Amino acid sequence: MRVPAWLEAGQDFVWRPYCQHKTASPPLPVVSARGCRLVLADGRELVDGIASWWTAAHGYGHPHIARRVKEQLARLAHVAFGGLAHEPAYTLAPRLAAMLPDGLQRVFFVESGSVAVEVALKMALQSAYQRGQGNRRKVIAFEGAYHGDTFATMALCDPVDGMHRAFTGLGVEAVHLPVPTPGDDFEARFAEHAAEAACAIIEPLVQCAGGMRMHDAEALQRIRRACDEHGVLLVLDEIATGFYRTGAPFALYRAGVVPDIVCVGKALSGGTLPLAATIATEEIFSAFWDDDPLEALQHGPTYMGNPLACAAAHASLDLFEQSDMASVVGRLETRLREGLEPLRHRPHVRDVRVLGAIGAVEMEPGSAPASDAFAARGAFVRPLRLASADVVYLMPPLVIADEDLDVLLAALDAVLR
User: Fold this and answer.
1) Cα–Cα distance between 206 and 211 in angstroms, integer?
2) What is the DSSP string of 316-378?
3) Contact at 8 Å (CB) between 99 and 250?
4) For the structural domain made of 76-322, what CATH number should be given?
5) Percentage of the chain lying above the pLDDT 70 cut
6) Could you say which of 237, 260, 390, 404 is catalytic?
7) Candidates 48, 60, 138, 146; catalytic one
8) DSSP at 167
9) What is the pLDDT of residues 238-284, one digit of tens each?
10) Which residues have C-beta within 8 Å of that of residue 313, sequence separation ≥ 6?
11) Does residue 237 have an active-site annotation?
C-alpha cells in the first residue's frame, strides 16, 4: 500500500483511539467516501462494514444531508447555547420527542454519546438529591456493559471483561448485575442495592461495544418493573441501538419498555457532525425547577446544540421518514442470518448472533484476524477484542446494497476459514 505523505508526516504526532501502537498496523488512509464505500489513497475501495462506528446509517456523501448543512453554514455555523437560541435546535428537540413515547420530551443536546450518558447520570443523581434522597448515590449497571469513555461512564462498563479495567473503582459508584435470564434471582439482587440507587442503565436488546451481547424484551421488562417497585429511574442507552438499527425507530419499542431517560446519538446526524442528546421526562425536569440557580442542571458543553449538527440531524430524520426502514432492516437481518449462520462451526467460533442490522460472530479470545485480512478482500471490519472473547461483527450502513453486503459476507467467509 502506498503511504501518502500526510500520513507519513503525521504518524509520529497522532495518538490513535483504542490502539496499541507497538503492535498495530498503520491505519488505512481514506481520501474520500461515497455510498457505503471508503476510497483509499492508493485507489482501492473498501465496503464499510461498521458504518464509521455505526453512525453512517445513510451511507457517505448523501446529497440531502450535504445540502442542509451547506444551507445552514451560510446562515449560522455556531452560536453558544447559553442564553441564546437558534431554530435548528429548537425545532429538532420536539421532533425527537415526537419519535419517543409520550412524556419523554426534555431534550439536552451534547456532542457525543459518552457525554449524553454523563448527563443522564447527572440528571438522575442531582434530581434524587434535590428531592431529599441524597442517599441514592449508586448506579445499577449490567455485566457486559459499555456506556462510554469518560470517568463516570467508564465506571458503568464491565469491570472484568470491559476495556476500562484499569479504572475500576473510579468515577461514580456502580453496581454490576447480570442481565436477567429466566429463572434467575435478579429481583432479589436488585433489591439489595435499590434503596441506595438513583438509576439503572442498560443498552436495550444489544450491548454493542461490550461484545454485541443480546438479550430479550422480557429482561428489560423485568428491569423496568424492579425500578418501579423501588423508585429507581431507568435510563436506556440507545446511542447505538437507536434510529432503526434493531428494526424499530428505537429498541425500546421492540422491548415494550418506556424509560425515564433515554440517550441517543451516532446515527442521529447521519455520521456527518458530532451530535447526541439526553431526553428526560417532565417529572425529572421538574426536580430542577427552582428559584435557586444552583438547583439548575450544572452542565453545558461549548458546542451544545451546534446549528450545523442540528441541521444534519434534521436531514437524517428526513431520510428515515422517507423510507420504510422497518422493511429495509428486516431484509438486512435476513441476509445477515443467511450469511453468518454457516460460520457457526468454523474453528474458534463460539456463537453467531443477529438482531436487526447487527450481525456478530463471537470467537475465542485472541483468535480474530486483524482488520488487514478483511481489507485485503475489499471490506473494512474491525473486530472487538475483549478479555473473554473476540467479536467479529457487521453493522453496515442501513442503505447498503446487496452487492456491497455480499462483499462483506464473502470477506468474513474467506477470512474465518
Assistant:
1) 9
2) HHHHHHHS-HHHHHHHHHHHHHHHHGGGGGSTTEEEEEEETTEEEEEE-TT-SPPHHHHHTTT
3) yes
4) 3.40.640.10
5) 98
6) 237
7) 146
8) G
9) 999 999 999 999 999 999 999 999 999 999 999 999 999 999 999 99
10) 92, 268, 269, 270, 275
11) yes
Instruction: Determine the Cα–Cα distance for residues 223 and 180; give it in Å rounded to an integer.
Output: 8
Residue 201 near residue 147 (C-beta atoms within 8 A): yes
Residues of the chain with pLDDT under 50: none
Backbone angles phi, psi at 52, to 5 degrees: 50, 60
pTM across the whole model: 0.95
Beta strands 45-48 and 379-380 are: parallel
**Could you state, in order of their start, the residue ranges of all structural domains in the chain?**
5-62+325-415, 76-322
Q: Which cell numbers in the block locate residue 26?
A: 498503520
Distance from C-alpha of 393 to C-alpha of 358, rounded to nearest angstrom: 7
Count other Cβ atoms within 10 Å, centred on residue 182: 8
Q: Under DSSP, is residue 412 helix (H, G, I), strand (E, B) or coil?
A: helix
Take residue 301 and report the three cell numbers written for it.
458543553
Q: Note if 18 is an active site residue.
A: yes
5-62+325-415: CATH topology is Aspartate Aminotransferase, domain 1 (3.90.1150)
Candidate list 48, 138, 260, 266, residue with the active-site label = 266
Q: In one letter, which amino acid is 143?
A: E
Cell of 300: 453545558
Which of 87-103 are b and which e, b meaning 16 or more Cβ less than 10 Å from the residue's Cβ?
ebbeebbeebbebbeee
